[in-house]
Amino acid sequence: MPDPVLLVLDTAPSPRLGRLTGRVDVRHADASSLAGLLPAADVLLVWDAASDAVRAAWPGPGRRPGWVHTAGVRVDRVLCPELAASDTVLTNARGVFERPVAEYVAGLVLAFAKDLPGAPELRGRARHREVQQVAGARAVVVGAGPVGREITRLLHGLGVRVALVGRTARRTIHGAADLDRLAARADWVIAAVPLTDATRGMFDRRFFGLLQPSARFISVGPVACVVRSGLQDALERRWFAGAALDVSEGEPPGPDGPSRDVPGLLLSPYPSGATVGWRDRLGEQFVALYEQWARGEPLPNVVDKERGYVPSADLPGGAGPDPGTGPRVNGSAAPPG
Amino acid sequence: MPDPVLLVLDTAPSPRLGRLTGRVDVRHADASSLAGLLPAADVLLVWDAASDAVRAAWPGPGRRPGWVHTAGVRVDRVLCPELAASDTVLTNARGVFERPVAEYVAGLVLAFAKDLPGAPELRGRARHREVQQVAGARAVVVGAGPVGREITRLLHGLGVRVALVGRTARRTIHGAADLDRLAARADWVIAAVPLTDATRGMFDRRFFGLLQPSARFISVGPVACVVRSGLQDALERRWFAGAALDVSEGEPPGPDGPSRDVPGLLLSPYPSGATVGWRDRLGEQFVALYEQWARGEPLPNVVDKERGYVPSADLPGGAGPDPGTGPRVNGSAAPPG
């Protein structure tokens, strides 16, 4: 019996795939060769998670991979209607990026509060302006998936009073219906939603108009959830105090990306999830999933292709705050929409 | 019986002292009038904590205040030998600044790790450099007083493995003899020591030579604990990766202050303890202490005038990490020296 065919869509090889050598027929594709190679593949690894080549190349009925894994959190770039309607299993890299992204958010909250971005410009400025205390401030985290939960946990550890908003209310998670009310009194609004039809452009002029003048908005999800013109307008009119957008791969700061000349807008210098060793962790994760797949075991991190994200019904308890010290976020969890 | 005389050394009146109206004979002094007014005072409030006027004006034997309170953490600017030898009680503002300073340190750690200071300069830079994860990194916090303990608590909450170093080893606090060994393997070295004869200049060229090339050094204590030329040299030679100095009042960024043109050196834009409302909190604290003094009760926050700081033997347990979740720092605690 021939080895299974693993087709890898990549721009650079993953160092960890070598562990599969001798057991797997590894082939490599780029955007132009993908369509021709896909029908012969058993497994497709979308190593270049910023690519949207799969949408264009996904084959019609007939032979196609039984499993697609994307080495990233976002699945909107991969999930075309034909893939959604097929019986192909789609998994993502849940578990690799949550902590780095949450650290980035905590860092931004503290950096804004302490005016660290202003530090290099100290010369000649008045020195006795007061900075803010983070403990006791109110935050609303929009998106109750693993990233939103990890953000909630870290901010809670800093003494921030965090309200976590999911799609529907359950236990200590607020439903989407509470979002406007919570946002209107928040010092910090953190957007951690996946890109779906329901979340595209959900942070718009109307939403920004709800915020307090002292509030700040931080998005760590796809920029397409944010209406750029609305954000820019609101910042220029000082409707609220500042914003930060995580610049993820495939969202260049060019004409298609967020503008960098907006007052009060901070862009991350690098994708916040890309901490040292992230490619190794992604490679190790895929190898582990592959071992499970080869043994015929059910895979974790399976995307609900209707909803467009991995449901959090069985998220491990460790994703929530420590018991007894913070809001409890157990139970089924899903982003707004 | 006349009201007690409260002499306030200030540049701006404290809004909260009004609560003592009718019970206290409040008088105000500046540096030039202090010596003349001191002998008649029962209590001296050093509201302008950056002033060193008390050292020059402290009266010789004879009539002098029985209690001096400084509205800051540092006592080195007040504590002259004559005051140390007297039976005057000296108290400080312990409890007001610990959390803001610890938040500033946590913010710097995250901002350095995520390269947030580099964010505004994104244009034209390579975007795929990896940032660092904070969880799992090693930190050594030098100074086991309330500020060092609060820093330890917050960093521990971020998943940092923190070693706390005091003057002498006890329970989970390392002694000063361990400092070199711990610093040599630390990713983060946090200096939170008071200025005493033993700590003046303790962070010098020899010390910076111990650090890893990837390490960063953050000082939140008096700049005089750091040998500027040694710091500058070490940063210019890239002995370690970066440093931050908290710019406290009375340490202007002029010729006497830390240089701002050193590569990798970040200066706080404002004193890190000065969060919104800090003057109110200082005023409220003094009024509460005054009530205790007026009732003849023993005062908290009494400075050990031999050692030059408030001993932490009876620090409330809340100053340490949560029980069971972090290193325990109970018991007597004092900074190195």
TrEMBL record, chains A, B:
<dbReference type="GO" id="GO:0016491">
    <property type="term" value="F:oxidoreductase activity"/>
</dbReference>
<dbReference type="InterPro" id="IPR006140">
    <property type="entry name" value="D-isomer_DH_NAD-bd"/>
</dbReference>
<dbReference type="InterPro" id="IPR036291">
    <property type="entry name" value="NAD(P)-bd_dom_sf"/>
</dbReference>
<dbReference type="Pfam" id="PF02826">
    <property type="entry name" value="2-Hacid_dh_C"/>
</dbReference>
<keyword id="KW-0560">Oxidoreductase</keyword>
<dbReference type="GO" id="GO:0051287">
    <property type="term" value="F:NAD binding"/>
</dbReference>
<feature type="region of interest" description="Disordered">
    <location>
        <begin position="301"/>
        <end position="337"/>
    </location>
</feature>
<keyword id="KW-0520">NAD</keyword>
<protein>
    <submittedName>
        <fullName>NAD-binding protein</fullName>
    </submittedName>
</protein>
<feature type="domain" description="D-isomer specific 2-hydroxyacid dehydrogenase NAD-binding">
    <location>
        <begin position="127"/>
        <end position="270"/>
    </location>
</feature>
<feature type="region of interest" description="Disordered">
    <location>
        <begin position="246"/>
        <end position="266"/>
    </location>
</feature>
